[in-house]
């Protein structure tokens, strides 16, 4: 009887031991700068560990504002890493406040200049053998918005389903991250890209303590985050920190990816004037460092001299160091690092941006626009183009048998924005990279989520593959369809297989390499994937070949007058 009682007590003890949260020791990790304590988070039928809000850089305030980041200082004791850190300074959406489709992208933690924090999701086992592949996420937002703490970027599903470690980091935005001042070695620009690089250095030095493999790091991002991934791929100083890259709907050679030094310096002077500072280059930095963050984040949007449907006030520049040359020139010359790359596009990349500046567009109704509104929208979509270049674009994007059709004009304008700013630069990057011997895979995403809150006509929008990459359909309460759940699982498998092996193919789906000649790609949707070739080949000839030549002739004629 006593033996049975002792056995029962032992079973109860084992039950409580196995049902209790992970031991505290499993949640305390020693990094090079100090110990951090994370937490366990539930996911599907299990748990993962989350270490949130780990500082990787000193707060870039005071004299460090606008400058390259410095590594975080060491701390004593155990730092709490159970909550996300601050988001970097930015404005929330003021065009559609309260609308679900806009709010989902707004920062969900306090905004602050003290924002250089990163997050790590790992399996619950403290030590893994062999160490796990690492996927480092870089968010998008036009270099003016975004944060690593969005619900959409929760790394727990990738970690739980595919046994990878996920990392995400914040980086400075707008003027705080991309201001460049003339003849100023302290503020050459690209501080936000250097924030990303510093986070990658942190991963290289510390991820082994979390069970990760520093020699198997994949960086991935979307939109400006994808452009950032491309900049890291091209930057000489970043090469040792990752081996593979995934680029979703963006490239550093896109029109929004860089601006000239002359233009960025002019914008810096306008910003200085707007916040009450001298425009003398010798005095600008000290004065701007004392200006209020609220003034800077607001006034930076008044530095433009032309209306533009898609443009950010401060973006990467050629600094001769981090960005040694224009990305387009580097792609032509072919002196490129050899990283494995997976990249692609969504079917309707241009529609989202029409609602933020094109005449006649809003979130209610069908946004059926007149011919005049189409022409106005095209003009602000090509703000630096000559009249001849615009005429060539109008010729391509018009149904001349039905030129006043409001629906067709709406869709053609979406085609202009999507083609100029996303499709053609991304495809150009892929073709040039492949031509010069790079290993690259390409996808075309074709599914519109059944829970997408934006108007139906906007289609498969920019940014709306992310929910499937991060496994949102795995959450039953969100209301996705069964075929969307299956598609999300396939996409997660594609992305993580690429991170693990360099090949995104999965069982039953062979993914062809992209070549400059055939330009192979794979479709992704709820239906079976298909292998196709030469996406938008005719349309992109306009943007990459014809229009640049037309613009050069126009510039030459103007110079002769």
TrEMBL record:
<feature type="active site" description="Charge relay system">
    <location>
        <position position="349"/>
    </location>
</feature>
<feature type="domain" description="Carboxylesterase type B">
    <location>
        <begin position="26"/>
        <end position="543"/>
    </location>
</feature>
<keyword id="KW-0378">Hydrolase</keyword>
<dbReference type="InterPro" id="IPR029058">
    <property type="entry name" value="AB_hydrolase_fold"/>
</dbReference>
<feature type="active site" description="Charge relay system">
    <location>
        <position position="462"/>
    </location>
</feature>
<feature type="signal peptide">
    <location>
        <begin position="1"/>
        <end position="21"/>
    </location>
</feature>
<keyword id="KW-0732">Signal</keyword>
<keyword id="KW-0325">Glycoprotein</keyword>
<dbReference type="GO" id="GO:0003990">
    <property type="term" value="F:acetylcholinesterase activity"/>
</dbReference>
<dbReference type="GO" id="GO:0005615">
    <property type="term" value="C:extracellular space"/>
</dbReference>
<dbReference type="InterPro" id="IPR019819">
    <property type="entry name" value="Carboxylesterase_B_CS"/>
</dbReference>
<dbReference type="GO" id="GO:0006581">
    <property type="term" value="P:acetylcholine catabolic process"/>
</dbReference>
<dbReference type="InterPro" id="IPR050654">
    <property type="entry name" value="AChE-related_enzymes"/>
</dbReference>
<dbReference type="InterPro" id="IPR000997">
    <property type="entry name" value="Cholinesterase"/>
</dbReference>
<dbReference type="GO" id="GO:0005886">
    <property type="term" value="C:plasma membrane"/>
</dbReference>
<comment type="function">
    <text>Esterase with broad substrate specificity. Contributes to the inactivation of the neurotransmitter acetylcholine. Can degrade neurotoxic organophosphate esters.</text>
</comment>
<protein>
    <recommendedName>
        <fullName>Carboxylic ester hydrolase</fullName>
        <ecNumber>3.1.1.-</ecNumber>
    </recommendedName>
</protein>
<keyword id="KW-0597">Phosphoprotein</keyword>
<dbReference type="GO" id="GO:0019695">
    <property type="term" value="P:choline metabolic process"/>
</dbReference>
<comment type="similarity">
    <text>Belongs to the type-B carboxylesterase/lipase family.</text>
</comment>
<feature type="active site" description="Acyl-ester intermediate">
    <location>
        <position position="223"/>
    </location>
</feature>
<comment type="subunit">
    <text>Homotetramer; disulfide-linked. Dimer of dimers.</text>
</comment>
<keyword id="KW-0719">Serine esterase</keyword>
<keyword id="KW-0964">Secreted</keyword>
<dbReference type="InterPro" id="IPR002018">
    <property type="entry name" value="CarbesteraseB"/>
</dbReference>
<dbReference type="Pfam" id="PF00135">
    <property type="entry name" value="COesterase"/>
</dbReference>
<dbReference type="InterPro" id="IPR019826">
    <property type="entry name" value="Carboxylesterase_B_AS"/>
</dbReference>
<keyword id="KW-1015">Disulfide bond</keyword>
């Amino acid at each position: 009887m006593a033996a049975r009682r002792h056995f029962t007590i032992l079973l109860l003890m084992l039950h409580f031991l196995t049902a209790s949260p992970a031991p505290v020791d499993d949640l305390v990790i020693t990094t090079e700068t100090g110990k951090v304590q994370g937490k366990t988070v539930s996911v599907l039928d299990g748990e993962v560990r989350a270490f949130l809000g780990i500082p990787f850089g000193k707060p870039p305030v005071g004299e460090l504002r606008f400058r390259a980041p410095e590594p975080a200082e060491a701390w004593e004791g155990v730092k709490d890493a159970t909550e996300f850190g601050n988001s970097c300074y930015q404005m929330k959406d003021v065009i559609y406040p309260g609308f679900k489709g806009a709010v989902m992208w707004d920062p969900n933690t306090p905004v602050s200049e003290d924002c250089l924090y990163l997050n790590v999701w790992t399996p619950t086992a403290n030590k893994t053998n062999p160490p796990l592949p690492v996927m480092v996420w870089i968010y998008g937002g036009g270099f003016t918005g975004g944060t690593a703490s969005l619900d959409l970027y929760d790394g727990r599903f990738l970690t739980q389903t595919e046994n990878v470690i996920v990392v995400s980091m914040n980086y400075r935005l707008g003027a705080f991250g991309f201001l460049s001042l003339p003849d100023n070695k302290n503020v050459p620009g690209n501080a936000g890209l250097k924030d990303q690089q510093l986070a990658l250095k942190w991963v290289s030095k510390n991820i082994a303590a979390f069970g990760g493999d520093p020699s198997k790091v994949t960086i991935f991002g979307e939109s400006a985050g994808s452009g950032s991934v491309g900049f890291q791929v091209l930057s000489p100083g970043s090469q040792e920190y990752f081996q593979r890259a995934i680029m979703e709907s963006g490239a550093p050679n896109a029109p929004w990816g860089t601006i000239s030094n002359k233009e960025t310096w002019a914008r810096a002077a306008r910003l200085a004037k707007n916040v009450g500072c001298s425009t003398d280059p010798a005095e600008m930095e000290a004065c701007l460092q004392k200006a209020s963050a609220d003034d800077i984040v607001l006034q930076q949007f008044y530095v433009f001299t032309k209306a533009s449907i898609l443009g950010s006030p401060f973006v990467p520049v050629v600094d001769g160091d981090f960005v040694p040359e224009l990305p387009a020139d580097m792609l032509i010359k072919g002196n490129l690092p050899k990283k494995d790359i997976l990249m692609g596009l969504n079917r309707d990349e241009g529609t989202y941006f029409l609602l933020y500046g094109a005449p006649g567009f809003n979130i209610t109704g069908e946004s059926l626009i007149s011919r005049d509104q189409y022409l106005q929208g095209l003009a602000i979509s090509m703000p630096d183009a000559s009249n001849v270049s615009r005429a060539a674009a109008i010729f391509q994007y018009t149904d001349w048998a039905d030129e006043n059709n409001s629906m067709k004009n709406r869709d053609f304008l979406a085609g202009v924005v999507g083609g100029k700013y996303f499709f053609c630069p991304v495809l150009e990057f892929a073709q040039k990279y492949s031509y010069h011997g790079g290993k690259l895979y390409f996808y075309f995403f074709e599914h519109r989520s059944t829970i997408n809150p934006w108007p139906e006509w906007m289609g498969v929008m920019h940014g709306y593959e992310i929910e499937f990459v991060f496994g949102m359909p795995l959450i039953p309460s969100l209301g996705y369809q069964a075929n969307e759940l299956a598609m999300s699982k396939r996409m997660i498998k594609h992305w993580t297989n690429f991170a693990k092996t360099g090949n995104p193919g999965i069982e039953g789906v062979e993914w062809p390499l992209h070549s400059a000649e055939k330009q192979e790609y794979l479709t992704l949707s709820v239906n079976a994937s298909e292998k196709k070739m030469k996406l938008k080949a005719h349309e992109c000839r306009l943007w990459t070949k014809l229009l640049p030549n037309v613009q050069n002739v126009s510039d030459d004629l103007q110079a002769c007058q």
